[in-house]
Structures are given as structure tokens and as C-alpha cells.
């Protein structure tokens, strides 16, 4: 396959940290254009909007959308209708219905839509999934606790409706859990929302599998000091633990040898394979868990949050 000519929209933190370097090193893609309201990338054609980029570079074959979820639908719709393959950053949208509609539009246009979940490509996740297959579970505890001031400085969109607050990182844990565990559903949730914000700063989810195995998730953005991105799964054969967002895997207490971190390389390999096969991959299971928490969770007002 010839390298796919790709344009990138939204030159923010994740675009600079991951998409640009991974695309520049990829044999499958050539980064040929950037659409950004504020920023440019030396040596790459720049456009102020996605629409201008589509018009200015008609031979683009794909776009990667790295803006906040609230503005992603209109961009994805325009790109799909223009016949481009689309890579969606996580979460794939602000609502479940818009993501379903995008999948329908992609199918009608005969192009690939990829709803990416980068944490599923952390090195410990696949071996954990393989080890767990067929084993009997006793309980699951997720701790995703980090300091919002450190990780999300200046990101106002994250506190707005559709920004999802602490579910923005929490959905990464849910993307792993929905990938390696049997199906589970929410029984109870508490969302702690700062009195001056629209989105939660902390959330506790109590879910259960069909067999009644408890799955508890604690997300908190007020964590200073050590940060935790841990999933502990108790089984009849002992515990298995993912640490550091899936970068480390322990079976019992034994650290498993793993390849180096390459989440975004894995995502772009998958995107290239989907394009080559003429397929899409739009799994909304993690977003559905967040939607259920909003739907049935209890809201508690907590101290205002100032950045
Ligand atoms: P960010 O630093 O705030 O960047 C988002 C970019 O989107 C902005 O720089 C802006 O780029 C563009 N944009 C377009 N419309 C916007 C609007 N109305 N408000 C704000 N920005 C707008 O955010 P990010 O951390 O890169 O996150 C973007 C997406 O990637 C989110 O869905 C997030 O969950 C996901 N993600 C983030 C990380 C991470 O570590 N930060 C990791 C994985 C995934 P221009 O100025 O160039 O137009």
C-alpha cells in the first residue's frame, strides 16, 4: 500500500506529544497538512480550518481529529462526506448518538472510521486479556487518580458540558476494562461536581458482571503526590494488576516482561490496517459506561475548583 496522505486537525497537547512524531515515523502515513486555529508546524501545509484544508488539499486521503470531543462531530461529518478516512481521538464524541450517526455516514461514504482508545494499546493490556480469558473473576478495583492541575493546565473545555471532567482520563480505564473483562453494567454511581463547574472532579462507579462479580472504579482529579492508574483484578488463580495505565503488568506479585510503550504506533498500525481492509472500528462501550454514570449516578456538589 502507498503511504496514506493524512491531515491533522487541532494542534494541541496530544497532537504534538504523540500524533505528529508517530506520523512522521510511520511507513503507512505521510502527514501533509495541519488545520489549526492558532498554531503551525514547520514544513507542513497549514490551514485555519478543516474545510480550508479539505479544499486546499483535495488529494488528502485521511484526517486525524485531535480537538475536544464537543467539536468533533461537525469535523468528522465534513471529512467523511468528503470521502476521507477518519481517525477520532478518544472519546469519539460528546454523545453516543452522534458517534452512531458518524458510523452510519462512514458506511454510506465507503470510508474507514476509527474510534481510537489509546490505552488499549498499552503493553500490559493484551497479555492481561489473554491471561484472564476463561479464568473465574472475584472482583475488580480501578483507581485512576491524578492531579488535574498537572495534567490538564488551561484546558477549559474539559470542565464544560461534553468535556466529561474526570471521565476524560477515567474513560481510559474503562476502555481497558471493557476490553479485558466480561461485560459489566452500572449499579450505582456518585459524581462529585465542583459548584462552579459543569463536569465532575471525581466519580465512583459500582458495576457488576452478569455473574455478579463486582467492578468498582474510583476516579479522582484531586490526587497530589503519587498518581495512580491501576486496575486490580482478583481471580480464583490469584490477582493480576495493571499499573501506570497498562505500562506495567503483575501476575501475582511478579512483574511481567513487556515491550516498550508504543500506544500511538499501535493505533496508527490499526488505522492503516482498517483502511487497507475497507473496514471501520467504532466501539462505544467505554463511552456507554460514562453515559450510564451520567444517566443513573447521584450528583454531589463539592468545593469550587479554580485552576
Ligand atoms: P488540548 O491540548 O486542549 O488541544 C485541543 C486542541 O483542539 C486545541 O489546541 C485546538 O487546536 C483544538 N480545538 C478546536 N476547537 C477547540 C475548542 N472549541 N476548544 C479548545 N480547543 C479546540 O487537548 P488535548 O489534551 O490535546 O486533548 C484533545 C483530545 O485528545 C481530547 O479528546 C483528549 O481526551 C484526547 N487525548 C488527550 C491526551 C493527553 O494526554 N492530553 C491523551 C490522549 C487523548 P488549534 O488551536 O490547533 O485549533
TrEMBL record:
SUPFAM superfamilies: NAD(P)-binding Rossmann-fold domains (SSF51735). InterPro entries: Gfo/Idh/MocA-like_OxRdtase_N, Gfo/Idh/MocA_oxidrdct_glycsds, NAD(P)-bd_dom_sf. Residues 4-114 form the Gfo/Idh/MocA-like oxidoreductase N-terminal domain. It holds the Pfam family GFO_IDH_MocA. This is Gfo/Idh/MocA family oxidoreductase.
Amino acid at each position: 500500500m502507498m503511504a496514506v496522505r493524512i491531515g491533522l486537525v487541532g494542534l494541541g497537547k496530544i497532537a504534538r506529544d504523540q500524533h505528529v512524531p508517530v506520523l512522521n515515523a510511520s511507513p503507512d502515513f505521510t502527514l501533509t497538512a495541519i488545520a489549526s486555529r492558532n498554531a503551525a508546524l514547520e514544513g507542513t501545509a497549514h490551514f485555519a480550518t478543516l474545510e480550508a484544508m479539505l479544499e486546499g488539499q483535495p488529494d488528502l486521503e485521511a484526517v486525524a481529529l485531535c480537538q475536544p470531543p464537543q467539536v468533533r462531530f461537525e469535523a468528522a461529518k465534513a471529512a467523511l462526506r468528503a470521502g476521507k478516512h477518519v481517525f477520532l481521538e478518544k472519546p469519539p464524541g460528546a454523545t453516543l448518538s452522534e458517534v452512531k450517526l458518524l458510523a452510519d455516514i462512514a458506511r454510506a461514504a465507503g470510508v474507514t472510521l476509527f474510534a481510537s482508545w489509546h490505552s488499549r494499546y498499552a503493553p500490559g493490556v493484551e497479555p492481561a486479556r489473554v491471561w484472564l480469558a476463561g479464568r473465574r473473576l472475584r472482583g475488580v478495583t480501578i483507581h485512576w487518580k491524578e492531579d488535574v492541575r498537572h495534567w490538564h493546565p488551561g484546558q477549559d473545555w474539559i470542565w464544560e458540558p461534553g468535556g466529561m471532567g474526570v471521565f476524560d482520563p477515567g474513560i481510559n480505564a474503562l476502555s481497558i476494562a471493557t476490553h479485558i473483562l466480561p461485560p459489566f453494567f452500572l449499579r450505582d454511581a456518585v459524581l462529585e461536581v465542583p459548584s462552579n463547574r459543569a463536569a465532575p472532579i471525581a466519580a465512583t462507579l459500582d458495576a457488576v458482571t452478569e455473574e455478579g462479580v463486582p467492578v468498582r472504579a474510583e476516579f479522582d482529579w484531586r490526587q497530589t503526590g503519587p498518581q495512580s492508574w491501576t486496575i486490580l483484578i482478583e481471580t480464583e488463580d490469584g490477582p493480576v494488576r495493571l499499573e501506570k495505565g497498562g505500562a506495567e503488568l503483575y501476575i501475582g506479585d511478579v512483574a511481567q516482561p513487556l515491550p516498550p510503550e508504543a500506544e500511538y504506533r499501535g493505533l496508527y498500525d490499526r488505522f492503516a490496517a482498517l483502511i487497507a481492509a475497507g473496514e471501520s472500528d467504532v466501539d462505544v462501550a467505554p463511552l456507554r459506561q460514562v453515559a450510564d454514570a451520567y444517566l443513573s449516578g447521584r450528583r454531589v456538589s463539592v468545593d469550587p475548583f479554580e485552576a
